[in-house]
Amino acid sequence: MIDNGFPLTTEPNILREMISPPNIVSKVLSVVTGSSSNVSNTLPRSTATCVPWRKSDLKHTSNEVYVNLNEEMDATINKEGTLVKCEVYGEIEVNSQLSGIPDLTLSFANPSVLNDVQFHPCVRLRPWEANQILSFVPPDGHFKLTSYRVKKLKSTPIYVKPQLTSDSGTCRISILVGIRNDPGKPIDDVSLQFQLPSCVSSADLSSNLGTVNILAHKTCCWSIGRIPKDKSPSLSGTLVLETGLNRLHVFPTFRVGFKIMGAALSGLKIDKLDVRNLPTRPYKGFRAQTRAGEYQVRS
Length: 299
What we know:
With about 300 residues, the chain is mainly β. The protein folds into two domains: about 65-155 and about 265-299, Mu homology domain, subdomain B (Immunoglobulin-like), CATH 2.60.40; about 160-260, Sandwich (Immunoglobulin-like), CATH 2.60.40. It contains three helices and 19 strands. It has helices at about 10-20, 25-35, 125-130; strands at about 1-5, 5, 65-75, 85-95, 105-110, 115-120, 125, 135, 140-150, 160-165, 170-180, 185-195, 200-205, 210-215, 220-225, 235-240, 255-260, 270-275, 285-299. The protein has a nine-stranded mixed β-sheet, with no helix packed on it. A four-stranded antiparallel β-sheet has the order 7-8-5-18. Strands 10-11-16-13 form a four-stranded antiparallel β-sheet, with no helix packed on it. The two termini are about 55 Å apart. The mean pLDDT is about 90.
């Protein structure tokens, strides 16, 4: 919203109050009156408060607040199988359906693991700087409370062991995948993608679990799904090189995908969430999940 060329506000809650969404009535009125503006002539009361991201007269029939820890693991494993880099990028997302002006406090069992923390404007900085506590009056609905990184992790939940040998115009490939560090929850949506070298003319690949497909631009995709605890997924096959080439000189990098519901691999643990300024006790829900981000295994 612009006032005389200067930004008045960028808060979504205020903008929703000031600017009505288009509908049939507004379109008819714009034709009759010749005015196409759907901007309110009066400012919402929240523009004059210390919490402009929230309406002051919010009412919900059932007071609920949900906190989600969403994490992505970035990892690099070199061709010797050594973990070169492993860190987690995380976001704490909140879905708040609370009446009035609630005051929330979120604390952690181990806040010292967090790096590069960024906050929503609703977070009070002094409680965080003094005690690593997130104190805030939340916006209504879904929003990102904070983002963070957890660096220098020592282990990954799964391992990928590729072996490639090349001679006589072919390349034999064998890949093993398994659970390295059991997170205590099922590891789902496991996949492996790699680019076949341009000098490969054909490929014959098969696996004991999941499906293997050669996509466009010679991209090989091995969709494994959930890793069973009693069976290690494996892929094997032969790559045939172009005529005149004896052996493969450039080996692929494997991109790993996975999803783990109910686990934050950073090790971050929520201690408790306190809610004040409500007449009744709200329902509080918590959920964590981790996905693979830039997860690479070199061969």
